[in-house]
């Protein structure tokens, strides 16, 4: 910010085609803060095809434009323009930076300017702001993971007494055969699981259960081994084979499990063996406190309390209240939550459900959360919970919403409005509804755009000196077949390219995602987010190893 009460004068350079869009966005955001905006169109139709040298020549040839730009404090050019913005800065005597690729990111870019976040003369603003967010995220998370209050250690990892940070446990599906579990356990650990819990099917023989435990143990590297079973013999066998966490301890099995009391146990309220289960939140918290007290008297020291998260529609909110009461009552005991009771019984995409659950439970103080990828819709839940745990840890430490923090779970949707497509000047559009037969030929070039709000794809064919034809519709096949019927001399390669790009445009339309011709649809972001989250957590996890975290 330039000074108390003084607005930053921002000049935005754009082309004739994008001028109406940029002007409309600017009008909506101007006056909200310390920004004063002026939009300057240069004499080029599509500015994204220009270079910084071309823009400089346009400016220098227009004395009035040059003088107007020199009155600005900061000038922004499109992020798609090739070249160094310093070239333009030399001509106008002001700071010139690259803005965004997508015009809808302009409010965020101007907010960054007002906050004094430096932009780049070479890289689009989206890249710069992402690096800024990631740097802030990493600094905050290093503070979280470098110093937190621990309850005890399991397998050399310090269990947080209260979130943040948050440990993620993952349970293997009971439907998998023992032969599949070694690889599955390896994947769960790679996806961010601190504890891999062997799920034991009800009624399974001890011999088969032992095979399961052994298979999961072989698949682990650094993750802690756990076992979840109603069969006490399976829990004891798991402890003998190296399991450090056992689920679950209750009033009905405590005496029988005393021989492995040195292990960490997840304690639940009541006695399921006798059908004694809690009702409301107060009863749940009270019964859990009694179970914890009984376990302590019997010599169990590594206790993690689980009030049990109920499914939506049959007690979810009441169980959340039980979590809050238990966290307040059991101040020296870490709190545990299994997320699958909600995710598996809620027919909605898991990323959003997981993100919200982890945030809410994290605010309560839950420091160990269990996932399970039993059903197909829950696949990837471990990865989602790991990202959510990092976002929540950042949120709790920074005392801020988990927004623009450098990580997100926006796997299909986006924060900014999708790019809009502008028709070439004086173009005549013909609506296409039927799908003609293909008739492929050669030699023009195409521009393609998606209007998500109107639910239409537009494709235009151009020769070197004029617009030949523009078509609009919802079906990629109908559009490419119609275009190929109307335009002659199209090579087979161009025809294949046209079909490919229209297919991606149709997919973008269906998903409500931005479409940029010749650029990948952002499904690749899922891979990138996973790799980045893995890198972040790999470095943070070392702080949780024995001797690396500082007990406070």
CATH superfamily of the largest domain: Dihydropteroate synthase-like
Helix content: 40-55%
Beta-strand share of residues? 15-25%
CATH C-level class of the largest domain is Alpha Beta
Shape: elongated
Q: What is the makeup of the main sheet?
A: 8 strands, parallel
Radius of gyration: 29 Å
Q: What is the SS-derived class? A: alpha/beta
CATH architecture of the largest domain: Alpha-Beta Barrel
- CATH topology-level name of the largest domain: TIM Barrel
In terms of per-residue confidence, which ranges show pLDDT below 50 for 5 or more consecutive residues? none
* Average pLDDT level: 88
User: If strands are numbered along the chain, what order do they take across the biggest sheet?
Assistant: 12-11-10-9-8-7-14-13
Number of strands: 18
Number of continuous helical runs: 17
Measured distance between first and last alpha carbons: 38 Å
Number of domains: 3
Can you describe this structure?
This protein has 3 domains: 8-124, Rossmann fold; 165-389, Alpha-Beta Barrel (TIM Barrel); 429-511, no CATH class. Helices cover 40% and strands 16% of the residues. It is built from 17 helices and 18 strands. The strands form 4 sheets. Strands 12-11-10-9-8-7-14-13 form an 8-stranded parallel sheet. A 4-stranded parallel sheet has the order 2-1-3-4, with helices on both faces. A 4-stranded mixed sheet has the order 15-18-17-16, with helices on one face. A hairpin with a 4-residue loop joins strand 16 and strand 17. The longest helix is centred in the first third of the chain and has 22 residues, at 125-146. The two termini are 38 Å apart.
């Amino acid at each position: 910010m330039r000074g108390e009460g003084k607005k930053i004068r921002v000049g935005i350079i754009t082309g004739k085609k994008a001028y109406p869009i940029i002007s409309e966005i600017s009008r909506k955001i101007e006056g909200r803060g310390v920004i004063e905006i002026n939009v300057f169109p240069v004499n080029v139709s599509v500015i994204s095809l220009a270079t910084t040298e071309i823009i400089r020549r346009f400016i220098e040839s227009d004395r009035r434009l040059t003088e107007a730009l020199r009155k600005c404090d900061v000038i922004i050019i499109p992020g798609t323009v090739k070249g160094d913005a310093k070239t333009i800065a030399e001509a106008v005597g002001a700071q010139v930076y690259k803005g965004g690729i997508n015009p809808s990111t302009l409010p965020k870019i101007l907010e960054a300017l007002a906050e004094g976040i430096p932009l780049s003369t070479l890289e689009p603003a989206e890249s710069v702001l992402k690096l800024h967010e990631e740097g802030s995220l990493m600094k905050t998370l290093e503070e979280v993971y470098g110093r937190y209050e621990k309850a005890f250690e399991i397998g050399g990892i310090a269990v947080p007494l209260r979130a943040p940070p948050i440990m993620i446990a993952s349970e293997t599906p009971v439907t998998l055969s023992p032969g599949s579990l070694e690889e599955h356990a390896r994947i769960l650990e790679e996806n961010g699981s601190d504890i891999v819990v062997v799920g034991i099917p009800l009624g399974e023989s001890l011999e088969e259960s032992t095979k399961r435990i052994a298979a999961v143990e072989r698949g682990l590297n650094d993750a802690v081994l756990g076992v979840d079973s109603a069969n006490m013999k399976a829990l004891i066998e798991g402890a003998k084979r190296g399991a450090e966490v056992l689920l679950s301890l209750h009033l009905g099995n405590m005496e029988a499990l005393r021989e492995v009391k040195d292990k960490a146990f997840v304690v639940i309220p009541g006695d399921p063996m006798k059908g004694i289960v809690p009702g409301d939140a107060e009863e749940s918290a009270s019964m859990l406190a009694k179970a914890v007290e009984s376990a302590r008297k019997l010599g169990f020291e590594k206790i993690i309390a689980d009030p049990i998260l109920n499914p939506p529609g049959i007690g979810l909110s009441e169980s959340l209240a039980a979590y809050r009461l238990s966290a307040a009552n059991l101040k020296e005991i870490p709190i545990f939550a299994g997320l699958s009771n909600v995710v598996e019984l809620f027919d909605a995409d898991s990323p959003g459900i997981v993100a919200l659950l982890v945030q809410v439970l994290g605010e309560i103080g839950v420091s160990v959360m269990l996932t399970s990828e039993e059903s197909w819709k829950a696949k990837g839940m471990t990865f989602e919970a790991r990202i959510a745990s990092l976002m929540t840890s950042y949120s709790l430490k920074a005392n801020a919403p988990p927004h623009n923090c450098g990580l997100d779970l926006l796997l299909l949707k986006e924060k900014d409005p999708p790019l809009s497509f502008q028709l070439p000047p004086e173009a005549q559009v013909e609506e296409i509804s039927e799908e003609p037969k293909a008739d492929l030929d050669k030699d023009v070039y195409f521009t393609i755009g998606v209007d998500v709000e109107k639910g239409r794809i537009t494709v235009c064919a151009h020769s070197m000196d004029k617009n030949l034809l523009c078509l609009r519709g919802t079906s990629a096949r109908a559009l490419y077949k119609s275009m190929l019927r109307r335009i002659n001399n199209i090579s087979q390669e161009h025809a294949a390219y046209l079909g490919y790009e229209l297919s991606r445009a149709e997919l973008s339309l269906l998903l409500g995602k931005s479409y940029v011709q010749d650029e990948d649809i952002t499904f690749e972001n899922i891979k990138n987010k996973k790799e980045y989250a893995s890198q972040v957590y790999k470095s943070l996890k070392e702080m949780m190893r024995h001797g690396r975290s500082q007990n406070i």
